[in-house]
Amino acid sequence: MGPSSNGTGSQPRQKLERVVIRFAGDSGDGMQLTGDRFTSEAALFGNDLATQPNYPAEIRAPQGTLPGVSSFQIQIADYDILTAGDRPDVLVAMNPAALKANIDDLPRGGLVIANSDEFTKRNLAKVGYDANPLDDDSLSDYVVQAVAMTTLTLGAVEEIGATKKDGQRAKNMFALGLLSWMYGRPIETSETFIREKFARKPDIAEANVLALRAGWNYGETTEAFGTTYEVAPAKLVSGEYRQISGNTAMAYGLVAAGHLANLQVVLGSYPITPASDILHELSKHKNFNVLTFQAEDEIAGIGAAIGASYGGALGVTTTSGPGVSLKSEAMGLAVMTELPLVIVDVQRGGPSTGLPTKTEQADLLQAMFGRNGESPVAVLAPRSPSDCFDIAVEAARIAIKYHTPVVVLSDGAIANGSEPWRIPDIAGYAPIEHTFAEPGEPFQPYARDPETLARQFAIPGTPGLEHRIGGLESANGSGNISYDPGNHDLMVRLRQAKVAGIEVPDLQVDDPTGDAELLILGWGSSYGPIGEACRQARKKGIKVAHAQLRHLNPFPANLGDVLARYPQVVCPEMNLGQLALLLRARYLVDVQSVTKVQGLAFLADEIGRVIRAALGGTLAEIEQDKTMVARLGAVTVGSGVGAEA
C-alpha cells in the first residue's frame, strides 16, 4: 500500500462507515489536484464517494488571502451516499487563510491538520489573526495536528537537488501521502499518475513522488497520530465503474448520442466557467465523429451549431447563464427554423458576471421564456454528475425526434462534482431514429409528422429538394415567407403544441410508506441533499416523500396528480422560487418555496430543518424572515452601516 510497509504500522485502526475530508489552501497550492488524487485512490479501493470542489472567483488572488482560498471536499463511505457531506470531519489547512475560511464548518471534535510552516506573522496578519491559533486555545474545540509540511517536503527532496521553489510546490503531495496513510489508501496509482503527468519534467516528477512518500512515512513513524482509519469498500451494483464529473459525463453522453443517431456531433462553443470542460473533453474525441469549434464569442458558437444542424449534424453549444443571454436571439432562430439543437447551460451565480465559480439554479425562467415572442423549447435537468450522461442522450433524442432546441440545465455543483459511474452498455440504449427526405419524395419543409409534429427535413443541396428557411415567419407546409395573421397564429400554436406533446417519463416518487403528507419536490443538484435529508428523517419515524424533476418542459404527464396527492408540497431551489412559480401557475397548487442564493448547494441538514419546519407549520415564516433580514442588512443612504459586503 505504501512506500515503507504493507500496512499502517502499530497504530490501532478504527473502522468508520464514512468520513468527510476537506483539503484547503491557496489556489496555487494544488488542492484540486490533491483532492482528485485522493478521490481516485478511494474509487480504486471501492468506496462510494462524492466530491465538491470550491474554486475562488479570482484567477490568482493575492497569496495567503481569504479570496484566494480553494478547497476540495470528498465523502467516502462503505454504503451508497448521495452528497459530498455537509461538514468535514477532517480539515487539511495549508495556511492561515484556509483555516479561517473553513474552520466554522468543522464540527466540535473535528480534526485539523495544518501546515505549521505557513503560520508566520505575515500570513496570520493577512487574514486578521492577532495570535497563532495553533499555539493559543482558540482551537480547543478541535483536535489539532500541526505538521511542518513545507520543511518536511524540502527535506525529502533535498537528496535530488530540487530547488526550494519546486520543493515547496510539492507540499500538497506530502498532505496527500499523509491522508492516504491515515485512511489506508494505496498511493501507487498516484505515483504512476505523477510520473505520467510530469513525464517531460522528470526532476519535478521525482520531487512530487518523494513528497508523497514522505507524507506516508511521516504518518508511519510519528507518534502524533495515534489512530488510523478504515472505510471498507461499498457494496454497489456489480459492474465496471469509474469516477466521473458532471461535465465529463455530459461530454460522454453527447458522444454516445451521436453514435446512437449515427450523426456527427458538432460543438460550437465559447469558453466560459463552469462549462468549459465539456468543450475540452469533446475536443479529445474526434475519432468518434465529433467536431469541436472554439468560437470567438457566444453568438458565433451557437451560430455554428445551428449551421451544423441545418447541414444534417447534431448541433450542440455549451455555456453558462451570461452566454445564454447572448445566445437568446439565435435560440429563437432555431425555434423558428425548427432545427435540432442541444444547448447546455451550466448555471452559476448571477446576474451578469455574478459569481463565476459558484453554483446556482436561477436560469430556469430564462430557459423557458428568455427570448422574444412565443419561443418554446424543451428543458431538462440532470440530478447528479453521473446522470449527465443519460440526460445528454435524452436531450439529443428529443431534439432529433421533434426537431426542436433542447436546453439542458446543469449547474456548478453537478458539473464540478464527481461520483462513481457504472459504465453502461451502449448496446442497451435504443437507437435515435431520424429521417432525411430523399430525392423524388414529396417534400415540403414545413409538412409535419402527424404524431410528433416535427417538420420534414432535407439536407441542403439534396437535388430536387431545394428550399428556404429563416427567421421570418414561414407558411404552413411550403415554408414560404408569410405575413398572414391566421398563418402566424397557426404556426405559433403548432410550435407550442409540438413541444407540449413531447413524450417524457412519468415522475417517480420515493414514498416508502405510501402515506406521507409532505412531498419535497426538487430539480437539479438538490437531489442529493433532499434524498439524504429524507433518509435521515425516515430513520426518526418522519413520513416524507421525495420526487426529483428531470423534465421541466414539458412536465411529466402525471405531475398534476402527484402534486394533488400530498397536502403539503415544498420546493427547495437555489433561486428565489422559479420552479414553484411555474407549478403554482400551471397546477394551482400551494407549493411552498424554499430559497437559497448563496452560491452554495443545499446541505442535507438544511433540508432536514425544512422538513421539520414544514410539518411544524413555520416554513412560511422562515422564508419571509429571509427577505426581512436582507432589508435590515441593507446599507441605507447616509447611514454608513449595514451588512458587510
From TrEMBL:
Q: Which CDD domains does UniProt cross-reference here? A: TPP_PYR_PFOR_IOR-alpha_like
Instruction: Report the SUPFAM superfamilies cross-referenced here.
Output: Pyruvate-ferredoxin oxidoreductase, PFOR, domain III (SSF53323), Thiamin diphosphate-binding fold (THDP-binding) (SSF52518), TK C-terminal domain-like (SSF52922)
Q: Which Pfam families does the UniProt record give?
A: PFOR_II (PF17147), POR (PF01558), POR_N (PF01855)
Which Gene3D superfamilies does the record associate with it?
3.40.50.920, 3.40.50.970, Pyruvate-ferredoxin oxidoreductase, PFOR, domain III
Q: Which InterPro entries match?
A: 2-oxoacid/accept_OxRdtase_asu (IPR022367), PFOR_II (IPR033412), Pyruvate:ferred/Flavod_OxRd (IPR050722), Pyrv/ketoisovalerate_OxRed_cat (IPR019752), Pyrv_Fd/Flavodoxin_OxRdtase_N (IPR002880), Pyrv_flavodox_OxRed_cen (IPR002869), THDP-binding (IPR029061), Transketo_C/PFOR_II (IPR009014)
The highest taxon in the source lineage is: Bacteria
Gene Ontology terms describing biological process: response to oxidative stress
A GO molecular-function descriptor: magnesium ion binding
> What is this protein's record name?
2-oxoglutarate ferredoxin oxidoreductase subunit alpha
Per the UniProt record, the lineage of the source organism begins with: Bacteria, Bacillati, Actinomycetota, Actinomycetes, Mycobacteriales
